[in-house]
Design brief:
Layout lengths: L2 H7 L1 H20 L4 H39 L6 H4 L6 H55 L5 H25 L8 E4 H11 L1 H6 L3 E5 L4 E4 L1 H18 L5 E9 L2 E8 L19 H6 L7 H12 L2 E7 L3 E9 L2 H6 L1
């Protein structure tokens, strides 16, 4: 709170004070009071007014300066009212009570919003689990009734299945504190599950899978990591030509494990590498191949952040694409394991 601005705000009361002093002086002169007594009264009056003025300024300055200092340091600005002390002057009390009312109204609104989001999330999850049943039935029917259109039907159904999984894990990533459980899991088991679920596409495109050094354990959530790896493998299959190669291998360095999935597909243009984790970004490859949602890697990164993992993509166009997931040992999880 600047004194100059405070004076500007009080300019009208100051003018009134000066006029009052002038009227008092005129009144005293009219009654022929000695000049030295008039001056004494003026001095006492001015000291009284200045004292009141300074007291008012100092207590307001201390309150507003402290409030602004706290506000600058707060990440969540809406918590301001809870972090300041209620002032002892009327204007400050009005401001404090106003902040309290606004804060209370915002909390009530947020609670309603959170409830609606939670309700919607639960409905989406229920819908996805319900829709998985007819998807599985269609795949079973196509498997038992092979004809010239079976492969095309299975291909489209697999896309639907993948998109529903994306929606499920996207919803979970938004409110995930109760949706995952960190434990020790073997990468070998998780990767084998992913390869089995993608075996038809791998066989169809005659893509060779080379696996080595994946018999290592990491701290993660098995279902979430399986989804992440499945998204990466799906991308590799999509952008790798027939008879291509996908290599999956792990390396360990002290308390860090790095899982790498590398393909010899069309690669990613240099200008697109920094954008691959952006929401709905499809880039050059998304336009020249089958239509992409641009959500796969975005969701993978969100899930990795929740799990405490790091995901990195490196690539050279028309040469290769490497996706690495880095698992770090965490002291907190180590206590819980």
């Amino acid at each position: 709170m600047k004194y100059k601005e405070y004076i500007k705000d009080k300019i009208f009361p100051i003018i009134l004070t000066i006029l009052t002093l002038f009227l008092i002086t005129s009144f005293l002169i009219a009654f022929k009071l000695e000049i030295d007594k008039i001056i004494s009264i003026q001095i006492i009056f001015l000291i009284f007014i200045i004292t009141i003025h300074l007291y008012d300024y100092l207590r307001k300055r201390n309150f507003y300066n402290k409030m602004n200092e706290i506000l600058e340091k707060l990440d969540k600005k809406y918590l301001l009212q809870e972090t300041i002390t209620k002032p002892n002057f009327y204007e400050g009390m009005i401001l404090y009570d106003t902040l309290y009312t606004c804060n209370k109204a915002m909390i009530e609104y947020l609670n309603t919003y959170k409830y609606n989001i939670k309700d919607f999330k639960e409905y989406i999850e229920m819908w996805i689990h319900e829709v998985k049943a007819p998807i599985a039935s269609i795949l079973l029917i196509t498997h038992n009734n092979q004809d010239k259109n079976t492969k095309k039907i299975k291909e489209q159904v697999k896309k639907i299945e993948n998109y529903t999984e994306q929606v499920l894990y996207y919803v979970r990533s938004e409110n995930s504190s109760q949706d995952y459980l960190i434990k020790r899991h073997n990468l070998d088991n998780i990767i084998n599950n992913v390869i089995i679920s993608n075996k038809d596409d791998l066989i169809l495109k005659k893509i060779k899978i080379e696996i080595k050094n994946i018999n290592v354990t990491v701290l993660t959530d098995a279902k979430w990591l399986e989804f992440i790896i499945n998204q990466i493998i799906n991308n590799s299959i999509k952008y790798t030509p027939n008879q291509g190669i996908i290599q999956i291998y792990a390396s360990k360095d002290n308390h860090q494990v790095t899982l790498t999935i590398e393909d010899n597909g069309i690669g990613i243009p240099k200008e697109d590498i920094k954008k691959v984790f952006q929401k709905t970004f499809t880039g050059y490859n998304g336009h020249i191949t089958s239509k992409s949602t641009g959500m796969g890697l975005y969701i993978c990164q969100k899930l990795c952040q929740k799990l405490g993992h790091k995901i990195i993509v490196t690539s050279k166009q028309n040469k290769y694409t490497k996706v690495s997931i880095i698992f770090n040992e965490n002291d907190y999880y180590s206590v819980l394991k």
